[in-house]
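Whether sequence alone determines local backbone shape is best considered at the level of individual chains. For completeness, the protein is quoted in full, as a sequence line and a line of structure tokens:
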Amino acid sequence: PSKAPYNVQLHTVDATSLKASWQDVRLIHQNGIILGYRVRFHHADGGLLLWNMTVGPDVHDFPFSNLSIFQNYSVQMRTYTSKGYGPWSNKVYQLTDESTPINSPVNLTAYNVSSREIKVLWNYDDNPRLVLGHLQGFTLHFLEANASDVFPEDANLKTFETRNRTLRNKIAEELEIYRLYNITIAARTAKSTGPPSESFMVRTYGEGQSSELKVFSALSWTLD
């Protein structure tokens, strides 16, 4: 054959599977009876050859399974007749589907901003091999204690989200006045959220408390 198979494609099936498909070499370029296809399948990072096989002339698709999550792979192929092989097609690349992160945010800290606001800060390693997908942002959970600082089974849970994958802080608003919160945070892909961070507890200010503290600080500075 003087040409490679055409319309070679690599499709995402799920997080650990891909499927290659292709069409026959055009008749004018076959130059004989097609006896089959030679298929090479590589891991794109480092180019490790995973499959190197021959399939029959009536086969026009092939599944690849047990792959790594959210990794890039390539496929290329050529046909052969009794006289030998034709040229290789260009490599076609595709990612396996994404999943949920396997790592948690770390170094979580939080402090009260006002009687209804708490600011949360954290760090996160966004290595794709840990995120296992495109990082969409973070989901913050605020578990609210009752007036006795107890977290009952039916405690109110407030949820906040960031949609900026590089942002590592968030001000949670519209919280209850002088209320204790148990805060956790998790990274999020399009599939779902990963494991939560270690929790951090902080209380919102009482009514007027933050402004009183600011006035006191200003007076102290003036007296000095």
The helical segments are 27-30, 128-131, 209-223.
